[in-house]
Each structure stands twice: as C-alpha cells, then as structure tokens.
Write a structure and sequence with these properties.
This protein is of the alpha/beta class. It is 52% helix and 13% strand.
Length: 1523
Amino acid sequence: MKPNLDFKGKMADNNIKELSFIKDIAKYFMDFLETDFHKRKLPRRSVKYRNNDNLLVGINLDKYADFHQGINKTIKNAFGSESLKKIDKNQYKTTLPKNLLDLIFLQIKKINQSQLKKIQKKLADSIEKAATLHKKELDKAQAYMVDDFEAIITQDLIFPFIENIEKPLENLDLGDEEHTFTITEELVAIVFNSLKSKSSEILNLVIAKEKVNISKELQEAFNLEETQESLSAYFGELRINDLFSEIFQLEKNKKILDKQDLYLYFGDISFESKKYPLFYIPIDTKMDSNTIHLTYDSQLYINKKALNYICQEFNKIKNLKGTLDDSSERIIYLSQLEGNLIEKLGKTVDELKNYFDMKGDIDLINEKVVSARSQYVKITNNRYLCLFDKSDEALVNDYEEILKELNQENGQLADKFTDLLESFIHKNPFSFNPEIEDEWDSSETEDKLVYSSPIPLNSEQRQILKSISKKDCNYLSVSGPPGTGKSHTITAIVFDAILKNKSVLVLSDKKEALDVVEDKITQTMNKVRYADSSFRNPILRLGKTGNTYSEILSRSSLDNIKTHHRVVKSKIGEIDNQVKNIIDSSMAEIDHEINTYEDIDLNEIAEFQNLESDYKDGTVLIHQEEFNDDQDLIQTFTDLVSAAEHMKEKIDTKDAKEVIKVVSKIYDEDHIALTTSLEFLGNVREISNIIENNYSGSILEFFKNFESITQKDIDAFQEYVSSFSYLKSPIIGYLFKNKEIKHLNEGLNSKLTAPVDLEFNKHIDSIKGIIKINHLIATRIDMEDSDHAKSVDAIYFFHALIRNRFTQAQIDEIISIEEALKTIISFIARYPLTSKRLNLDLDDSDSIVNNNALLNKKNLLDKELRFFYLHDKISDTFNDIPESHYQASNKGIESLITTKVTHNMDDRLINFFENNKNDATTLRNIIKGKQKFPKDQFLKLKNAFPCILAGIRDYAEYIPLEKDIFDLVIIDEASQVSLAQAFPALLRARKVLVLGDKKQFSNIKSAQARSDTNTEYLNAVSESFKKNVTTDITKIERLKKFNIKTSVLDFFEYISNYSIQLMKHFRGYKEIISYSNRHFYNNSLQVMKILGKPVSEVIKFSFVQATDEDELYPNTNIKEVNYICDELVQLRKNNSTLSVGIITPHTNQQKLLIENIANLAEWNDLQDLNKLKIMTFDTCQGEERDIIFYSMVATQTKDKLWAIFIKDLKNVDLEEDGQIKAQRLNVGFSRAKETMHFVCSKPVIEFTGSIGEALRHYDNILLSSAEEKSPDEVDKNSKMEEKVLQWFYQTQFWQENKDRIEFNPQFAIGSYLKQLSPEYSYPAYVVDFLISYKMSDTNIKQIVLEYDGFKEHFSDLSLVNEFNYEDYYNEDDIYRQKVLEGYGYSFIRINRFNVGKDPVQTLDTRIENLIKESPVKTNVLKNIANTVNGLNSGDKKECPKCKKIREADDFKDDRLESGFGRICQLCKATKSRRRKKPSSSLTSVKPSITCPDCGGSMRLRNGKYGEFYGCAKFPYCKGTKNV
C-alpha cells in the first residue's frame, strides 16, 4: 500500500503552522523581558537619579572630576587587573553651597496657593477628559491621565520654578542642560507620586459614574504644604559631599528597592528628552567603614534595545529605513575579548555618529565631557553609577537561541516547546494525587513515622518525594504558605536526588532563598564533617547570587573532602546495616507502644474507679499499705483463699474434728494450734508404720482389749512389770507367787483408766511391748525431757488409732492440708495487718477453717480481689509502655544517611577532579568569564555537582540550552517568577517542581507591566493561535494563561501531575500566624511551634505621642524611629543574639529608619549579631526574624495607610491594586518567629480599613490572654494538678535549674493535636503542663507533661463519649504525638499507675532522661569521627600500598631519619616475606663504602647482572655502586 503523501503533507503543514505560533509566543516573552512593557514601549534602561519615592538611584560621576582618571583607566584596561578597585571615604568629593540651598528654599516658599489651584483645576479637567475619552478602557484612561498630569506639572509648576534658580545654578557650573534635565525629571516624578494613588481612585469613581468632588479630593493629595515639603526634602537630599557617601546611599537604597543591581554606565545617548546609557556593566560592592571595594562583572553590555528604539523613532521622523548593524552584538565577554576594548566600543560610537549624522568627536576615555549631536540625537562620554532592575539578558539570549532553532523548523527545543504547549492547550494532565494519597493513607503507622532521610520530614514532604519518584509525574506544584518549610522541602528533595544519582538545578529570583537552601544543605553536611567544617562543601552555586566553584576546588577544601571520603569509603556497608538496624528497632518500639496502649481498657479503669469507692467506708479487709508495698498480694491472696477452702474441706468434718479434739485432749488444751496437730499427726503416721512392721499381732490385739490407754496407764504397766519381775525372782517362793500375782493383777486393774478383766501375768510380754511402743512414741515425738511432756498423752491417741477408732485415711486427709497451711502461715507473716483484719490466727484452727470473711468469695474475689487484680493489670500495662526513643532514633538515622549523601557528593567531585584536571581549570575560567559551558564540559560538571543552585535571571549565562539536561529543576518562590522567565528552565528539565504561594506577592515586573501594551501582544498571540493551531473556544480560553502576568506557579495549575499544600507552620507561634491563617488560609495551617511563654512576650504594642512636626518628610514619623532605636540599643545592652527586622508601610520611613539606625554606635553589631534588616511590606517576602518591629507611621492627623493596604479584604477584586494591597498584609504579618512588636502613634481603635482590623486582631489576642489564668495559677478544683506541681517542685531537676525553666500549668496540648486531625477529640480529663527548659540561648527543650487522674474523668460522666471511652490511647493518637516529637517536643505521661512508690523520683528520672537524651550512638560514626580527627592531627596515616588507615605508630621505622615510613609495617613485613633472594644475595654491611644517595652504609648484593653494592636502607633508599 502506498503511503498517503497528501496526509503527510498536511501533517508537515500543521507542524509548520504550530511552530509559527510558538515563535510568536517566544517573541512575546522575549520582548517583555527586554522592555517590561512600560509606557510607550520606551526602553527600560535609562539614566535616572531618583525614583518616584525620591530615593537616590543614580549618580552623575561628572561632578567627581578626579574620579574620571580611575574610570578611564578601568575602561581602557577592559575592567581587568589594573582597574579601579576601591573608593576611600572622602577621596572624591563635591559640595552644594549653602547659599544656593537658601535661595532654592526661598523659591520654594514663593510657590503659592493660587498657583496650585490653577494646576488642580487643570488636573481635574484632565481626569474628566480621560474618563470621557476612554470610559470603557480603564488602562487607556489611566495612561492618558498619567501623561497629561506629567505635562501639566512640568509646564505649570516645575518649569517656572527651575527658571527662577537656573541662573544661580549656571554660576556654580551646575546649571547645564544635563543637571537641568535631571532636576526637572526628578521633581516632576516626586510631585506626581503624591497624586498617583488618589488620582487613580478618583478616575475609577468618575468612570463608575459615582458622585465625587474632584477638586476637593485632589486638594487632599496635592496641597501647598506637602508640595513645599517634598521639594525641600529633595533639595535637602542633594547636599552630598562625597562619592563614598553617595555610593553608600545607593547601597542602602538597593536594599530598600529589592531586586536591584548596581551598574556603571559610560557613554550616553539622548533622544526626545530621555537619556539612555550606551554601555553598562554590573558592579559588585563590598563595604567596610572607610572603603568601598569594587568588583566588575565579566560581561559588558551594549544597550541594544535603546539604540534600536532610537533608530526606529529616528527613521519615522526622517522617513528613513535602516538598522544599526554594528550594534547587533549585545554582550561583550571580556574574558574572550580580542583586541582593544576602546577600539571595539569606538566602532559602535562611530556607527551611531554616522547613522544619526552627528557632529563632534567622542573620546570615551576623555577626562572632560565631550559630545556629538545632531538635530534629534546627542551622544556624550558621561559616566554614571545607577541602580537598575536585575538583568534578564541571559534569558533574552535563551529566547534568541530558541527562536533561531524554531526558524530551522526542527530540533529538540522545538519538540520540547511543542510538548509543553500540547500538555497545556490540548491535554488534561494525569493526576497522581489519588495514587499518592492512597499509598500514604494505607501505610502502617510505623512506616509513616520511621524513614530514611538526612533531615526530618513531615507527611506532605514524604509524599512529595514519593511523587517525584513516579514515572511520568513530570510537573509538580507545591503551595507553601509563610513559614511552612519550602526551603526545608527543597533540601530534602536535593538530598533524595543525590542518593538516587539524579541531577538537580535549584532556581530562584531571590538570593536570600538560595542562601537559605545552601545553608540548610551545608549545615546538614557539616554535622558529619568531624574535623574543620569551614571548608566549602561540593554544592555548586552559579551566577550573581554567588559562585562557589573556585572555593570548592581550592587545595584546602579538596584535601578536607578527600580526607572524609577516604575514611567513609570503607564504612558504607556498615552504615547501611546500622540504618536498617535502627529503623527496625524504632519500628518495633512504635509497634510495641501501639499494642501496649491498645491493651489499656477504659472499661476496666472505670470498674477500678468504682471498686475503689469501697475504701471510703472502711469495710475493706485488705490493707492498702501492704498492697502498695507488695505487688504479689493478689496472687498470694488467691492462694490464701484456695488454701482456706482446702483446709475447710479436709478438717471441717466430724471425723477430722474428732481427731483434732483428741489431739487437743492429748495436749490438754481446748484449742490446739494446727501446726502442732499436723506435726503430731505426721509423727503418728510414721510411728504407726514402725509399729505395724516391728510388733507382733498378739501385742496389738492385747492393746485393743483396753477401752483407752493413757500415760497414767503406761506408768501403771511399768510398775506392774517391775513388781512382776520381782515376784519371779528366786528369793520369793513359788508357792506364794500365785497369790501375789493375783493381788498384783488386781492392783494394776484398779489403776487403769479403763479396767479390764485379764490375767495380766499371762500377757507380760504384751505389756512390755506396749511400754516399748510408748517409749518409741515419746522418742519420736520428742517429748522426753520436754517441758510439756507430761501434758502430752500421745499413747492415748495411738491406742485409739490401733483400736480403729481413727483410720489411717482420716489422718492422711488431715495431714494433706500441710501445704495449704504453709500458704496461710506465709500470708500471715507477709501481711500481718491484712491477716489481723481477717482474724487469721494460727493458734486457732477455727479462725481459718470457719473464717466467713475469707471464704465469702462473692465479697472478696468479685470485689476486693478484682480491684487489686485490675490495679496490677493496669499498672503493669502502663509500666510496659516503652520510653520513647523516637527522637534519638531519628537523629541517628539522619546522621548515618547524611554521611552517605555527603560521601556520594564527595565521591563525584573527587572523580571529576582526579580524572579531568585540565577540564576543571577550563571550567574555572568559563565560570569566571560568565561564559556558557560547552555541552560536553557541562555534562562533566553536572556529574561532579549533582546539585547546582543559581538565580533564575543568570543561570542561562552558564548552562547550555539543551532539552532535559537536568533530571529535576526546582523553582522556588515561583509566584514571583513570570512564565516568561521560567519557560527556558522548563525546556532544560525532565521533571519540574515549583514552590510558591499565590497568597503572597507575584512577579512585580509582570504586575507593573503596562496593560494596554500587554493586551496588544496577547491579541496578536491569540490571532496567531486561531490561524495556526485551532479556533476551539475552550482552547482559546486556556491560551489566556499564556500571559506574562501569569506566574509559573499559576501556570502549573493547568499542567501539574501532582500538587500539594504544605500545612505545617514552623516559623512562629499560632498567635503570630493567626491573622494570615484565618484570612488567607482558611485556618488550614497546622502550627508546630508550641508557645511556652506568656502571650505578652509574643505580641507587644507600644504607643508614642507624635505630631505633624514629627513628619520630617512625607510619610515619616521620627518619634517611632527614635523609639525603635532605643529598643535596639537595649537589645545590644542585653547582649541579645536574637535576629531583628523592622517593617514599615512607607519607603520614606524605611529610609529614615536606615539613616538613624546607621548612626548608632551599635550599627555594626546589629547587622552582624542580630541580622538587622529594615524593610517595607513590599520587600519583606522570604525574610524571617526572631523579633519584628512594625513602625506604622500613621498619626491621628495624618494617615496614608489607605494607599498601602486594602480597605476591605472582601473586595480584593473590586479595589484598584486590591490583590497586592491584600498580599501586603499576609506577607508582612507572617515574618516573626518569636515576637511582633507594633509601634503606633495612635490608638488601635482609630486605625481604619483592613490594617485596622489586623491590628485589632492582634490586640484582641493580647487582651484575651490577659484574662486567662497566669502560668503560676492552677485549677483549684483539680487536686491532682496541685499534687503534680508539688511533685515537680520537689524534683532535683527543678531545684538545680529553676532559673532556666518555664513551667506552665493548664497547657492546652489538645489545640495543637487537633490541628493535625480536625476530627480529633482530645480527652478533656487530661491535666497538661508545659516545661520549657533553656539549655542554651538558642536551644529550648520543651516537654509536655500529662497527668491522667482518671478519677476526674469518670466522676463526670458527661466527659465520656463514644470517641474516648473505648480506647484510652489509640494508634492515631500515637501518630499525632510522634509527629510533634519529630519536631523536637517530648512527652511524659504519668498517672496513678506508673508514678511508682516515689512519684518525685520517678518524675525527676524521666525528665533527666529526656534532657540528656542524645542521638542513637552508632559505632561507625564514632569510628569515622575518630579517624578523621586522627588524620588531621597526625595520629593516623593512610598506607598508600594497602589503602588502610592505621595508627601513626604502625608506620614507625627506626632505620629512617624521620623515624616514620610512608608504608605501614604490615605491608613491609608482607613484602619482606614474599621477596625471594638467593642465599648469597645479601652479605654483611660494608661500612667503608658509603651510599652515593643518602651517605649511609652499603651491602654487597647479587643481582641480575652479578654483584653490586646496594644501600643498606633499601627499599627506602635505592642508591647503588659498582663493585
């Protein structure tokens, strides 16, 4: 099938058309960067001496004749080594005589009311005319009015005034055309500036057909007194005596104006009363007390835009066509300059002279002013020092290169540009937000809290890192309200990219923003630089915001970096292992904490509380003191009850009672001790076994004949046996024995307890057996010779046992209670007080067997034992909660990861330097000359420096315009970067992340661009779009965002794949940020900084009595200036190191503050130690200070704040400049970290408009705080709060540190936790305290102490609800707490269950542990630190052979003069063992033969070529001699 050539042709045609549209966009952006779209499209860069606020912005160097010689030499030298490098104080001087000033002031006084009324009338007519001619086009009406106003003021006020002083000026050589022109221009600007806001307001009202008295309204802004004051102030400022002083003033004004640079202009060209520099070069100044040091840029610029403009206008006048060919080169790279600079510049001047047909010769380095002129154009060789906006020249060059490539209709840039437009115009970006949010929400709590990063990160920052790692997530937008950590986020992104071997370019239009990022990266890295950390880390900074390349590659920096690299290199694996171990340990600890808290059941605590109430009536049996002393009581008590039950079962029977009764009778006691009974019965069982085994049945049968036998009977038996034995003796005759025996038998029977009718003589052996049994019993029971032997009739029991009155089984049953009895005995011994309450008595078995209290299980086990069981369980659970090491673990992880990141950066730098030394030198020269890197050279540089920081206006001077040259480009303060400025950066990036805040200032240059000019361009772009792309209405609507007034932050709303707002505010307290949070962020900010001091120290109001006389210049207040000066002096007296800022609404007040504070003796210290910066509401964005003074200026009679701030925040879109006026409030009132100090000259209630509402907002916070309880008060209704206070005040920690501790009861931690989760219901029953411990001037440790009494919680059931009853402290609670812990706050939770026996000691120990807690110690970091320090001190060395770092002693070698070798002993020994030598190769030393190299002795050796003499010190000396 043949290809469809027609289709391909159409596609190609479409591409060409789209390229045409893209060219129009690029041209639109480039023209804006060149012109700012100011009125009449005049070139931006002109010669001006003062701006509309009467600030000095330029110096005509003509009045410093002596200075010309140095400037001429500098230009001739092409700003090289022989240039003028410094200006000393009083070295170059000029004066304005007093008599001239007096004359000028006299002429000012002659300006009268009648003259002003005429002018007011003309101005009023001008407003009406503008409103009539352009009633539907406000921009054009404004432009018409501005032009007409300037003409009226010039003709009717300034020209007549100048004519009156022109002659005296000429007499003093100050009245030439140059000075007259300058003075006229500046005076017109000053007068018009006083009318600007009011006239615009009147014009709006007239167009809106509102009733307005134009003349009356104009009189308010344009009156005689203020006009005379303004003119007097101007001429008063002209009294400048010294070039040093003027430049000093320029530098001060440079800080006031913001985003301005200082330039040397030389050569000027005038056309239609406007003067433009021919050539200019940026100058950097550094000032000390008596000298200004000058550094010239490496690029010299030709004012191409002005020359082309004049050429164009000249052609119109003369009806000519043509261009200035030789002026097409805009930038001269001085480092690449070939030939003479003067000759090169002279060619440009000659071309101008020829083109404009000028007469006269121009010598640019002539010490006198020379000129060439024609009817319309004039050129001079004048020199000026002027402030002007930071240049966008590099970006303009980018657009020229873009247009050049687009004209070729191919190339990567065209593709990238087209892709961007496609994404914006034709597509909807794929959003990764749902995916990222789902992943985060589904993460385990441990995974959310424990992570691998060199710096702490919050949830939003973690999600940003995750989004960057997603494939195809190419455009990311981060909204960062004030103080939410944008710079911290950038730092985290940079470190993450470095770890992943990605390249990052960080851009901003604010030097301060880049400074903060660089400082954060450096400070983080320096934590693991264990030796001198003053050397440069490998963070490359390019451009006017600072070049660091040379410092990084200096010998000292490289040596230090190499030292760290060598040490860490062998430890990377160990670092990875330790990171894993700490992460695993920290996760396990959090998991354990979560599980333990989940084991706490509030139902059980409630039950415990209810059971505890039984103590009140005194009926409790268990003694509480013994419970507190012994945690085993519950189990022991359970065992006791079981023992008692067992005993009752065994001995509370008829038979058992009978046995015990018998035993009692034996002992002749009514109640016998159970221990005695058991001992006795145990012996009985043993003796019974002996009797059964050792005595015949006849004896036992005889034993049974008796009803009972007692010890008395045994005595009778013994007597009988004795008598019977006597009768049987031979002495007595046998005949008489029967009679005697009978009598003896009768006598025995009469003595027996239970007589029996027996012939005892026939049973004499059995009687003897019974006597032996009795002896056995007595011996075994140990009765003999005992005190109670007579009272113990044991034979009685045995007789009963043998006659089967008691069975062996009965005895065994009773003996089985022995273990139970031991339990009871142990209980009574351990718990005598409780035993007494239970009436337990070992001497009374009935007190145990029939103890109703003990055996009443319903009362005891279900209540009292349940109570103690719960106490034990709850206490054990609380005590099982691990002490949190979350902060310490995180810090340990951070240190290890920082070490890894730092090593990665070091490794890349070292590889670059070692392998590309020539290129490294070449790149140094390229950077110095501000030349663009060749692509191949830049790729090497990018590999060496994965992170590059640069200003958005000048990064393009160095970095090639190549597609996707960076993995990631970050644009900070993106709301202040116009789309025109950002687009070239977007082309250079694979991924782009922008950070900013739409609620703060946008790009000033874009905002001030002339609307009618911009509209013309937009209309042209729109027509091109319709013609070349599409007529689709929806896409045309999108096109409107391709506007130079659109910031890149706004643009990313339409192309971003991921967007998020940083929520956590770190800068100030919630009281400070509250106004912005409420009115600009809908209370969405989560304030992480916990207030640990009175609100009166955070918000302050001071009032001064100011009158009209205190307004030295318009919109100034000297009383407020003096008050602030006094406060600053006091700060220095107190040696405070807190940073300080001053913000005022008016530029004139800013200037007055600078002038007066600069005259203080403390000026240098305030700048160096307190980082003092004096700002307006317009110039304070991006700044932060501990203390911010606000000088409000307004008095009861004069208040111009209406021109600065919006009247009503609800009417932002209705009021002129409403957006900027509202943003001033947000930006200005969010700068303070510790204190906002308002200095006012009238009561707060008298301030009107939104500024009045803002001031009253803060005043109300202050008043509300005064009504609250002071930190010294406690809740009188809470006994536990008072008790905790008593505990705390007894701790050793308090006693030793009370001067450094703020202790605040009733601290509402819940309000901070609720920010993290709005639906969170913080338990109202927790008593909170905040301990603020000042460890140093800059380090305050804050500990939240929570006491939970529970009793208060459950005694008020209204506090119990479905949110807090079931779960005491759940997983979400722990997450919220850990989040705060991650920001440095520590928590101690105590309650009645975990305070221990000594609450004071418990509290003291836990506080001390937190105070002393340090990051988790890792052996690898300790080893690295010791090794680095050892290498730097010389205690360690690296062996070049084995590459191991060893102790210096390992390099000792006594054979060497220094005593130390280069190679370690181990390597030498190895080498010696490995060396194979013939036995004859080494002979004895020949002292007579000396080494030719070292003079030492030599040995005779055998070598490859035979014998030779070799040095005895070989291999350290290799000297040889022939034999």
